[in-house]
């Protein structure tokens, strides 16, 4: 009895210590006292509960969960449901936390708060929104502002990831968190300018609230503003202001914020700006996306986008195996997603395996008909890149959903025209026009009004047929257009032009419908038109006549004085008795008697052979060279004879003795060279 009394007294003292430490927030010391109590009574429910709370307060969630799971008989779900679910939530075991909450017999306010957080992490935004609305409606305490902030975060997530138009919750944007969440919702709707204003307001409110605390430094304020600045940079990027966005992103990275999720998103956005440029910077930034805990901070779509960009970066850096590995992993996670297949096809194209890329895309289109349109457009692009325009046209025409679209019709007609396949181009027009006829007949119950798109297609078809000489085929289109608008003079003129070659009588009949020349006359100010900015010819304004000009104007009968032409200079050796060479105006190489220049033999032969050797006498015999007649007449030499005259043309006459002097000089040079080198 005395031992039991002593134990009870010791336990009472320990409980007092636990209570005091708990009030002071010293949970480490409180935990020591609780452990001593459990030594006295290991199944004390209150002591076990206190131990779990102390471990949670100290951040030891795994150990706290271990205590709960070890003492399941004592710590039932009714007793410790919140603490267990909270530990699972903090350990990122979100599904387990949800099961724990749902299995609790009594849903307390604490469990409801945690339930909202769990639903948000699971991205079940509709259920989460309902949970927070219920909490706000049925709670009145100091945490109301936090609940409203969480509610606005859910609305922002819906707008961003599910493209849901958010409803006006009537929340007063009194805090920077609420302003920030509103800005995120506006970004999701594409209202970028309004979102930027909200972010600027959030920045202002954040500075005001933090500057009131004397212990907060400027660095702390900048760290808190990092997420706001990151969203501002994202808006700049969406607006095309990539340089400004890049500068702001890098400023945030220099601050080294502790939020790994923020750093990962910023690094990913920088990689998207770099694209296939500045890949070394991208390879550095991609490391930030691999930080520990990133997967628990970001949504599934954010993580997926980061993985897509990793695969693209691997492709741009020629890491083919890594690119294939990442894209295959993404495809296994999301088999219906289009982007992994496109990345694989792009990688195959870089490896010049176009046929394999087309086959891959075709297989995906067969398995996922919902994405067939995008896949077939990509396949057509690949075929065009290979030069197979006709095959590309066949692929595009197999897309039934787009056959009647003006853009598709225009593309097909252009491609067929390039291949000079006019019949197929006309067939494309015909099919599109028929589609609109059937659609409008079903919509108007037999009435036949033409939509602007339908009429536009008919006109384009008619113009195309006229351009390519298919006037007979164009007539029916033109008649349809004129029937819809009988006052259209341009269409009537085209119709008359087409009939003039096919049925002249019909053309005459239709020409009576043309307006008269009087009704078509336009009041045009010719002077204003000529003086306009775009006029190619401007009539000179008549100036005032004075002096001699006035006399000349009066004497209209007088003949204007002609300026004397200067006589052309003649060559110095010109002889009027000699007929000039008729080919003198042609370049020397184009004249009939030109035989090319005669190269000196000695120049070509000097230095040939081994050093010190002498050439044969026949090669350097100057007497033979001088005495032997030239093999062909050379223009300008004394022995040359013109094809048209036996007299030397004046342009080619040279001073007497010039050829002889040249020959003497050549002989002297040759004689001097006899001794060799």
Automatic annotation (TrEMBL):
Transmembrane segments: none annotated. Signal peptide: none annotated. One of its GO terms (cellular component) is endoplasmic reticulum. SMART domains: TPR. Residues 572-593 have a biased composition (Basic and acidic residues). PROSITE patterns: TPR (PS50005). Residues 94-149 form a coiled coil. Keywords: Acetylation, Coiled coil, Cytoplasm, Endoplasmic reticulum, Isopeptide bond, Phosphoprotein, Repeat, Ribonucleoprotein, Signal recognition particle, TPR repeat, Ubl conjugation. Residues 540-596 form the Signal recognition particle SRP72 subunit RNA-binding domain. Residues 539-677 are annotated as: Disordered. TPR repeats lie at residues 226-259. GO terms for molecular function: 7S RNA binding; ribosome binding. InterPro entries: Signal_recog_part_SRP72_RNA-bd, SRP72, SRP72_TPR-like, TPR-like_helical_dom_sf, TPR_rpt. The keyword Secreted does not apply. Pfam families: SRP72, SRP_TPR_like. PANTHER family: SIGNAL RECOGNITION PARTICLE 72, SIGNAL RECOGNITION PARTICLE SUBUNIT SRP72. Component of the signal recognition particle (SRP) complex, a ribonucleoprotein complex that mediates the cotranslational targeting of secretory and membrane proteins to the endoplasmic reticulum (ER). The SRP complex interacts with the signal sequence in nascent secretory and membrane proteins and directs them to the membrane of the ER. The SRP complex targets the ribosome-nascent chain complex to the SRP receptor (SR), which is anchored in the ER, where SR compaction and GTPase rearrangement drive cotranslational protein translocation into the ER. This is Signal recognition particle subunit SRP72. It comes from Sylvia atricapilla. The gene is Srp72.
């Amino acid at each position: 009895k005395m031992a039991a009394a002593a134990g009870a007294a010791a336990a009472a003292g320990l409980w007092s210590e636990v209570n005091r430490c708990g009030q002071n927030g010293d949970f480490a010391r409180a935990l020591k006292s609780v452990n001593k109590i459990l030594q006295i009574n290991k199944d004390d429910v209150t002591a076990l509960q206190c131990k779990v709370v102390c471990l949670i307060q100290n951040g030891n969630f795994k150990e706290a969960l271990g205590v709960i799971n070890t003492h399941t008989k004592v710590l039932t779900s009714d007793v410790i449901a919140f603490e267990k679910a909270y530990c699972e939530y903090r350990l990122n075991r979100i599904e387990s936390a949800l099961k724990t909450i749902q299995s609790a017999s009594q849903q307390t306010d604490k469990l409801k708060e945690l339930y909202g957080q769990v639903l948000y992490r699971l991205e079940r935004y509709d259920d989460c929104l309902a949970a927070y609305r219920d909490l706000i409606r049925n709670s009145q305490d100091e945490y109301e502002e936090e609940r409203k902030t969480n509610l606005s975060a859910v609305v922002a997530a819906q707008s961003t990831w599910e493209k849901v138009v958010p409803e006006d919750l009537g929340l007063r944007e009194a805090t920077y968190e609420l302003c920030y969440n509103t800005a995120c919702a506006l970004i999701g709707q594409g209202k970028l300018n309004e979102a930027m204003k909200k972010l600027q307001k959030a920045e202002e409110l954040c500075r005001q609230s933090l500057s009131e605390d004397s212990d907060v430094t400027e660095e702390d304020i900048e760290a808190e503003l990092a997420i706001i600045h990151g969203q501002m940079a994202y808006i700049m990027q969406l607006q095309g202001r990539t340089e400004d966005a890049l500068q702001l992103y890098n400023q945030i990275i220099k601050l080294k914020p502790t939020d790994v999720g923020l750093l990962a998103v910023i690094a990913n956005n920088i990689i998207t700006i770099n694209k296939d440029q500045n890949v070394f910077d991208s390879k550095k930034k991609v490391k930030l996306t691999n930080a520990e805990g990133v997967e628990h901070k970001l949504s599934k779509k954010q993580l997926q986008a980061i993985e897509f960009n990793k695969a693209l970066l691997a492709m741009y850096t020629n890491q083919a195996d890594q690119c294939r590995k990442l894209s295959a992993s993404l495809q296994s996670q999301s088999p219906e997603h289009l982007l992994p297949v496109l990345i694989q096809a792009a990688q195959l194209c870089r490896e010049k395996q176009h046929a394999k890329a087309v086959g891959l895309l075709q297989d995906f289109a067969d398995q996922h008909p919902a994405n067939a349109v995008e896949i077939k457009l990509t396949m057509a692009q690949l075929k065009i890149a290979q030069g197979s325009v006709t095959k590309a046209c066949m692929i595009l025409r197999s897309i039934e959903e787009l056959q009647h679209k003006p853009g598709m019709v225009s593309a097909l007609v252009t491609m067929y025209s390039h291949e000079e396949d006019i019949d197929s181009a006309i067939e494309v027009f015909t099919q599109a026009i028929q589609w609109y006829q059937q659609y409008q007949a079903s919509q108007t119950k037999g009435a036949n009004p033409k939509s602007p798109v339908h009429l536009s297609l008919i006109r384009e078809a008619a113009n195309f047929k006229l351009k390519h000489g298919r006037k007979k085929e164009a007539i029916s289109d033109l008649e349809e257009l004129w029937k819809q608008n009988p006052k259209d003079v341009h269409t009537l003129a085209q119709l008359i032009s087409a009939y003039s070659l096919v049925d002249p009588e019909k053309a005459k009949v239709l020409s009576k419908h043309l307006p008269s020349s009087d009704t078509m006359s336009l009041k045009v100010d010719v002077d204003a038109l000529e003086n306009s900015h775009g006029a190619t010819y401007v009539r000179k304004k008549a100036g005032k006549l004075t002096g001699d000009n006035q006399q000349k104007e009066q004497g209209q009968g007088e003949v204007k004085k002609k300026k004397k032409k200067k006589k052309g200079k003649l060559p110095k050796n010109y002889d009027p008795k000699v007929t000039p060479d008729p080919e003198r105006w042609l370049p020397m190489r184009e004249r009939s008697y030109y035989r090319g220049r005669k190269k000196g033999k000695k120049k070509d032969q000097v230095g040939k052979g081994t050093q010190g050797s002498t050439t044969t006498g026949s090669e350097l015999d100057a007497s033979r060279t001088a005495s032997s007649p030239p093999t062909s007449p050379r223009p300008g030499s004394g022995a040359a004879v013109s094809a048209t005259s036996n007299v030397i043309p004046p342009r080619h006459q040279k001073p007497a003795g010039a050829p002889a002097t040249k020959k003497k000089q050549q002989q002297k040079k040759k004689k001097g060279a006899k001794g060799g080198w």
